[in-house]
Design goal:
Layout lengths: L1 H21 L13 E19 L2 E22 L2 E18 L2 E20 L2 E18 L3 E19 L4 E17 L2 E17 L1
Antiparallel strand pairs: 1-2, 1-8, 2-3, 3-4, 4-5, 5-6, 6-7, 7-8
């Protein structure tokens, strides 16, 4: 009996091992990717700094206000590196009385930037830079209202965090230099710093 039991146990063990080998390994969970187009909305605060040169002197002022807008772009991820292009259109609420002008400030602004970042799975840390523009305005008593488009550059850094496979949150700091323009006869140099918080949808 003993001689029959040992071969039977060996056969059972071999069959169990073979069955384990034939069992398919569970599929690996899909890895999150930042690749693809996206669109979102954001809002925050801004400080616009202006240097104004008049015929009788100059003046520097800071205009503080809020902004609300949208952002959009496209990412391509290769391993952990993410590259892409990002754009935005915003409306700013910032103006201030300057010298003989009743109000000076900016309203619309926008940018198109190249982006490069490093992905830690659901977290993307990035830097971005490119072209930026803003519309400045001045309301001068007796001269009417004047508006002009400023063109310059922008650079910043931020982070995107994926809340789901398609929804992500964004936080970003940006510095923009809009260059110099004549605004109602006054040479004006504008720069802006912004901090934005937003939410986006990835397709």
């Amino acid at each position: 009996m003993r001689h029959l039991l040992i071969p039977a146990l060996l056969a059972l063990t071999s069959t169990s091992a073979l069955a384990a080998d034939l069992t398919e390994a569970p599929a690996a969970a899909p890895t999150f990717t930042w690749s693809g187009p996206y669109f979102g909305i954001h809002g925050g605060g801004s400080i616009t700094s202006g240097d104004f040169k008049f015929s009788r002197g100059s003046q520097s002022e800071d205009f503080k206000g809020g902004l609300l807008g949208n952002f959009f772009g496209y990412n391509y991820q290769l391993d952990n590196v993410v590259v892409g292009v990002d754009g935005n259109v915003d409306y700013n609420w910032n103006d201030k009385a300057v010298a003989n002008a009743s109000s000076v400030g900016t309203d619309w602004s926008g940018a198109v930037r190249a982006r490069v970042g490093y992905a830690f799975d659901n977290l993307l840390i990035y830097g971005a830079g490119g072209w930026a523009a803003a519309r400045g305005f001045a309301e001068v008593p007796g001269s009417g209202d004047g508006k002009v488009i400023f063109n310059g550059w922008t650079a910043g850094a931020g982070a995107d965090y994926a809340l789901t496979s398609s929804i992500f949150a964004r936080a970003e700091y940006r510095y923009s230099d809009y260059g110099s323009k004549e605004l109602q006869g006054v040479k004006s140099d504008l720069t802006e710093q912004t901090i934005n918080l937003g939410v986006g949808l990835k397709f």
